[in-house]
Design a protein that fits this description.
92 residues, 5 helices, globular, mainly alpha
Length: 92
């Protein structure tokens, strides 16, 4: 099971679930993460509810910087979520 440096398990988690967990573990509100990352608060909310996907490298970089974690960790989350969505799409 891949682990992030903060112990968050990726298996079974969507990118939105992971993002919410990472944000809360740093005791940040969505508004604070929005301000720190330069992303809109509504966009952060949509990401956490899995209404938007982490598909852009620029978004990954902004979130990583806003959360003050390595960009590779956020990119891994985005990649795993993409793979999960692709497997689900292939089953249809």
């Amino acid at each position: 099971m891949p682990l992030l440096h903060d112990g968050a398990v990726l298996d079974g988690m969507t990118s939105g679930q992971w993002l919410r967990r990472a944000r809360k573990s740093r005791r940040l509100t969505q508004a604070q993460l929005s301000e720190r990352s330069g992303l809109g608060v509504n966009y952060v909310s949509h990401l956490e509810r899995d209404e938007r996907a982490l598909t852009k490298l620029a978004t990954v970089v902004l979130l990583a910087d806003g959360l003050d974690i390595a960009r590779e960790h956020v990119w891994m989350v985005a990649l795993r979520d993409f793979e999960r969505r692709e497997r689900a799409r292939a089953k249809k």
